[in-house]
Amino acid sequence: MPPRPTAPRSPSTSPSSPPSPSPSSPPSPSPSSPPSPSPSPSPSRNPYRLLFAIPGTRAFTIGNLIARLPMGMFSVSAVIMIAETRGSYALAGAVTATGLAATAVVAPWTARLVDRHGQARIAVPATAVAALGSLALLLCVRLGAPDWTLFAAYAATATTPNTGGMSRARWAHLLEGDPARLHTANSFEQAADELCFMFGPVLAALLCGALFPEAGTLVAVVLLLTGVLVFSAQRSTEPPARGRTEAGVPSPLRARGIRPLLVGFLATGAVFGSMEVVTIAFADAQGHRAAAGVVLALQAAGSCAAGLLYGVLRLGGSVERRFLLSVGAMVPLMCLPFLAATLGGGGGLVTLGLALLLAGMATAPTMVTAMTLLQHRTPEGRLNEGMTWAVTGLLGGIACGSAVGGFVVEHASSPAAGYGVPVGAAVTALLIALATARSAPFPAPLKDGPSTR
């Protein structure tokens, strides 16, 4: 991504007269310029502690985590709520699929408005509309409204802003010109994604089961609104609004190298979607369907641990080379669940859980390097939109992977055969990455970023 113009000098400072070294009058930060990051981390210090020493980062991270947790709750809550009250998993799946399709259409448009007008001005009203959609769904289910109203209500939730993308955009703004700490920040954000999608479904199932079917949706709405309000209130770390993009600046979809990355995100999402459906079917065949959530949580836990560790490492070479290595590692690791399910013997879900734990460790490095490449290749002022297209690709891949995984499980002789679908999706992602690398000089000229401005 090209460097942004540096902040203008203070009126009291001129090129011929250096600024006063007095520490008693530091320049006040403005919303358009990020707070000055602390000095570059030394190898002996915790890079995450140094990351959150930057003023304002803890506050926006807390708000973002609160807002991001419901992302793993809404779909599970909707399925449980509709299935228990209407007695149809088919209807529940169709409603959530409609919401997914609506999100794929609306989310990039919402992100474009965020880039143009600022995070706070767009995220808060967009979240309010999405919250009203979730509450409307709750009321329609509770009051026994016709089925079509469920589809209409859940489609309104598509305006939910990409909170993870907005957080990554803040880190990119604050750490511009510091690729080492931006790498750590991206790794933390990926680990946070895994944590939210690990605990979100568990919390949703617990609330719906222990209280009432609508409890999961209701709590998720409260958390989403609270988190977005806290996050948006942190104005000192918010990237500046870009206004209308200048003529000649391409859309992220037209920028060089973006579309192959998005196809890679689609294939990676198919890994996630198929793994979830196949694991539930396999656990059901073993007579332990309730344990499927715990087994899938192990995959997220492996990815979370790998993400945090990856953020500490200082790896050399180009980002594109590391991306190829990460996707290449994902292929053999995704073979482990297939082997555990087909050759696990009497181990059953225990062996499968260990295999998923190891398989998940390939996810975070792949996502971190892919997001870093996306940040470099997205045109100036379009970062939220570019990252939202990545999320759209992931969601589309999850939907396709779920459909293909479900079809294979239903028609194969054994549910274990379904684990061939995530392996095939991982191989597809690797082939896309290799084809992209061959279309440009290798080693790729793209590096982590400039070490100086």
Automatic annotation (TrEMBL):
The chain crosses the membrane at residues 65-83, 89-110, 122-145, 202-232, 261-283, 289-311, 323-343, 349-374, 386-407, 419-437. Residues 1-44 are annotated as: Disordered. Pfam families: MFS_1 (PF07690). Keywords: Membrane, Transmembrane, Transmembrane helix. Residues 16-44 have a biased composition (Pro residues). The keyword Membrane applies. This is MFS transporter.
